[in-house]
UniProtKB/TrEMBL annotation:
Keywords: Oxidoreductase, Peroxidase. Residues 1-182 form the Thioredoxin domain. It comes from the Bacteria. InterPro entries: Glutathione_peroxidase, GPX_AS, GPX_CS, Thioredoxin-like_sf, Thioredoxin_domain. This is Glutathione peroxidase. Pfam families: GSHPx. SUPFAM superfamilies: Thioredoxin-like (SSF52833). It comes from Paenibacillus sepulcri. The keyword GTP-binding does not apply. Belongs to the glutathione peroxidase family. Gene3D superfamilies: Glutaredoxin (3.40.30.10).
Amino acid sequence: MTTLYDLQAETIRGENKALSDYKGKVLIVVNTASKCGFTPQYSDLQKLYDEYKDQGLEILGFPSNQFGEQEPGTNSDVQEFCQINYGVNFPLFAKSDVRDETANPVFRYLTEAAPFEGFDTTQPSGKMLNSFLSEKMPHWLQDDSIKWNFTKFLVDREGHVVKRFESTVEPLDMKSDIEALL
C-alpha cells in the first residue's frame, strides 16, 4: 500500500526531498498562499509547530497560486513573506499546483486518501466559501480535489492520511486530533 513516504517533493530552495525523511513524525500537510483571506492561519500553524514539534509534529507547507492567483511571488518571495510576517520556520516546499491534471503528486495522493466531505456550512466561513464556489466554480465541488488555500491533511507516523480539514477549519481546532496521534 502506498503511503506519503513513497513520494518526494521539491523544497522551496529547489532541493529534492524524500518524504520518507519524515517517517515516524505526525504531519500536517497544507497548501498555502500569501494573499488569501485564510493567510493568517500561518500564525496558528506556527503555534502548533512550536507547541508540538518536540513531540514529533512536522508541518509541510506547499504554496500554490491556483486559487485566485493569491500566491503570485517567487519561491524566495514566499519564504521571505512567511518568515517576516508569521515567523514560519516549518518546512516549505516549492510553489506547485495542488489540483487538476498538473497537481503535485503529494496532493493527488492526499486527496485520494482523504476525499472532500463538504464544508461545515453552519460556520460563516464554510457557508461563504461553499456559496462562492457554488456560484463561480461549481465543477470544483464535484470531485475530491483541493477546493481552496489552506486545506490541511493530518498524517500519522506511518504515513497514512488520518483526516482532511478544509480551508475554513482553524488550525488550533485540530489540536485534539493532533494530540491523539502524538
